[in-house]
Design goal:
heterodimer; A: about 700 residues; alpha/beta; 2-enoyl-CoA Hydratase, Chain A, domain 1; Rossmann fold; N-(1-d-carboxylethyl)-l-norvaline Dehydrogenase, domain 2; 3 domains; six-stranded mixed β-sheet; B: about 425 residues; Peroxisomal Thiolase, Chain A, domain 1; two-stranded antiparallel ribbon
Chain lengths: ~700, ~425
Amino acid sequence: MDGTRTGPVLRHLGETALELGPAEPGGGPWRRGISDGIVWLVLDRQGSSVNTVSQDVIEALEAEIAALEQDTPRAVVIRSAKTAGFAAGADISGFDRMSDAGAADLLRRGHGVLDRLENLSCPTICVVHGAALGAGFEIALACDWRIAVDGASFGFPEVRLGLHPGLGGTFRLPALIDPTEAMTLMLTGKAAHTGKARKLGIADVVTEERHVQAAIDAVLNGDVGREAAGLKFRALRFDRARRLAADRMRSETAKKVPQDHYPAPYALIDLWERHGDDRAAMQTAEIESFASLLDTDTSRNLRRVFFLRQRLKDIARGADGIAHVHVVGAGAMGGEIAAWAALKGKTVTLEDVALDPLGAAVARARRICKDAHLSGIETRDALDRLMPDPRGYGARRADLVIEAAPEDAALKREIYATLRDWMKDGSILATNTSSLRLADLRDGAPDPARFAGLHFFNPVPKMQLVEVVRHDTTDDDAAGRLTAFCGAIDKLPAPVTDHPGFLVNRALMPYLMEAMVLMDEGVSKERIDTAAIRFGMPMGPVTLADQVGLDICLDVAESLKRSVDKPMAEISDRLRERVEAGETGKKAGQGFYDWSDGTPHPDDGGGPDDMTDRLILPMLDACVECLRLGVVRDADELDAAMVFATGFAPFRGGPLHHARARGVDETRTRLEELAARHGPRFAPDPGWPDV
Amino acid sequence: MSRPVYLVDGARTPFLKARGKPGPFTPVDLAVQCGRPLLARQPFGADAIDLVILGCVNVLQDEMNPARVAALRLGLGAGMVAFTTQINCGSGMQSIDTARRYVSDGSHEIILAGGAEALSHAPLVLRQSAVEWFGQMAQAKGPVAQARAMTGLRPEFFKPIVGLERGLTDPITDLNMGQTAEVLAHRFRIDRKAADTYAMQSHHRLARAQDEGWLEDEVMPAFDAQGNAYDRDDGVRPDSDLEGLSKPGPAFEKPYGKVTAGNSSQITDGASWVIVASEDAVEKHRLSPIARLVDAEWAALDPSIMGLGPLLASTPLARRHDLAIDDIDLWELNEAFAAQVLSCVEAWADDSFCREVLGLDAAFGRIDRDRLNVDGGAISLGHPVGTSGNRIVLHLANALRRQGKRRGIATECIGGGLGGAMLLEVA
């Protein structure tokens, strides 16, 4: 993790080479070799640094297995030649084609291949390093033994794509380990890391790469034991016990996702409840269920979101040339940005005139490390990299300075004037402003060409998106380094222009303001939030306003009202009153909600009939405005930014995708109706015909 | 080859009084806390540093060779050679002297030399008899042998020894360091009131230095993982007076002794670094040195009077450079005990002592209190043993520059019967 820990000697020696036995590079995705009576099948898909299990991988495996059935060796070892890991799962880009070509037939063929692997008469050993996900995990499960190299993980992330395992995972995993644990892995999509995989019984052996050959020998010598199935295991063979367990799973799942938006986990629970005692029936049902889920809008949209993420990751590629980050302002945002960058390996200095916020930032950083499951040593190193800097020494050494001072243009200009004397040539100054225009700050920057916005969202560790904001004269190199910096700290960059509120706040603000108008009309905040949650938002607008901070909301609302050339709702007095009273939301413990006992969970029945449209459509309309004005480069990047910054209902594929699915004309007509009834703030943007 | 050597910068943590439980920082934590800002304010990067030397007496089990652990945690790279020096209370000055010699001989250009100590982390040690019992238990095979070994258990096994107490006791004479101060107080007729008066001045001087901002560049705030910020030496008692100091009884030799907790140095955690550089490095990186490290001397004497170590080390140093007492503008003489500092002053003013012990023609002279420990010392600041020698050199350099003075000596007594001294001139 820490580059400074790697001296020239280790650099020369390089990564520990993977033990690939006698397998030589060959033509297909599987390298093959035999020595000492053991056949090695090594997965090495050409043209990619990561293995995915595509149709050709399965077909080539079929050919290998046919040969092994004819001429059975002493044992078979299966592993990956990629340093990145075993296999990242199925080839998702092939899913659309698969669904068109009759998915069930293809799945049946795949099942046949893994069944034949399972039925080979010699021992089969899968050696897993890195991640074995989805179909990769399913290949491992079809082997007799699994050796995990420390750091390995096993998981079924299919549920995140609106699916469940489709190559035998639904019956092979519950047959191997405690079925309720198996179901939990499949329902949550969470991976089991090495230690847990060993404990659950997924991995038979855990070792280091340097001992892989010895571990294989131990398995073949019969030196590795396996525990017999437990009592619970046997109990769940009975329908009644499974029915009880399934009900519990349904209620747990319902706490996270509703069935009408996310059918896959419910389908999986049904499968297991019905066929958990009958492998053959389960196999048939798994294939049918997977094929039908593949065709749902939810799965198509979640797959779309998967590719939108890849798209933003691609933007984030490249070298950032940023080793040292200096953050000015240790408020909640500045402190978390600094902590996050340090956690991700950057050297960070955090400047503030007062010591108390600096101390609080260090304590917050420690909690962020804990939430990220860092070990004690990793946490120590992250905190070592985060230096509180009351004297501002770091500005002189930094490759990137992030200004996260209060939203006061005069104060920011003052800070920039000081930085001008300190910042070295070639370093970039970025502001985390949410409500000020870069055009108004640019002239005070040490070098306007190397001045940009780097707009993080609150809370920084959870929110994946960062808006990388360019003004008219930001140069390409600086903008490119900033997007690469986002990649380096595991964030998704969305390049946007210097529009009021940029993209995300511009789109969110009408939604938040309409919620306040509804409150002024007498609708309860719980009803408003429930309507948004039912639409598929992760939280309602009132809760979101509290979380963003009502003071920030007010700043952004006022700035938008000043500079956006469109009618907007009046800023509600209740917002001003809260801010004046210091009840600024989550950070103050009190906003519209009382946060003293943690996040509120509103749940209330329906509101006015048109409430959902009144909340959601103005957000879509603002997105259309941003698209028309070129605030983002295209509709996909816009949808991506909204999903990853606001959690906009992922199963709907993004706001513009959703508008198209609903029908552009219908949406526009609806806006006109709302405008007639509630005022010109609903008047549709002229960009709608181009959506 | 002998080249001029400079002290170009330095920084330390606040000195944090031990309060009956392990403090927030280990020795290496402390070294990292003050090392980071010190390095951050240099115009050169980690690659310009050739070597790291760190003085530390009470090394923790988790931080063997703390110099190397600190170097890695400071991001100085896998290729950074680093070693730890241990000569008791002289460790932090030994690191500077070793750096000085390496730079002087032309083999190194820039060395990071420090001291780190967390006395509040001093371990509880098992009695030898308990260690033996544990050994027997571990070797006992089978329930019968274990039961038999179990019968050897004694209640005293659960009364551990405070490691620090043993560390502050001389193993040759079995005298506690405080007792060696009682010996000197007796020999040089230092009474309780003189010792208390000296201690009071130490507190007042440190409080003034803090209030005037004289420690601004020297003391870097430290931050623990719980979010607490520490920005000043917390053992100081600005309102210290003779009445208060007269209250505590003798700490080491009850009931008649004169050395009390009030007129002794405090048990404290802290770290300090200085950057030692050659003339070439100063020019190359356009550094502004604070002082030139002119020379140093180490000496030894009977452990029971270790407190006179400063005389035996400083006097030959002054003579080698033809310096009389008036030529030394400022002294930092580590305040292990008020009685010990005052005994040194008396001995230098004593004709027969100076003639017979130091080989001078007459008394060296009486050091003016206005030149001695001008901003307080270990009595008000505390004495993290491996760090103090480093701090007094750094502070001497800063005080000389602030007062527009030219030359000074930093010197210390060292438990076990040693003394160290370093001569500085402002650059």
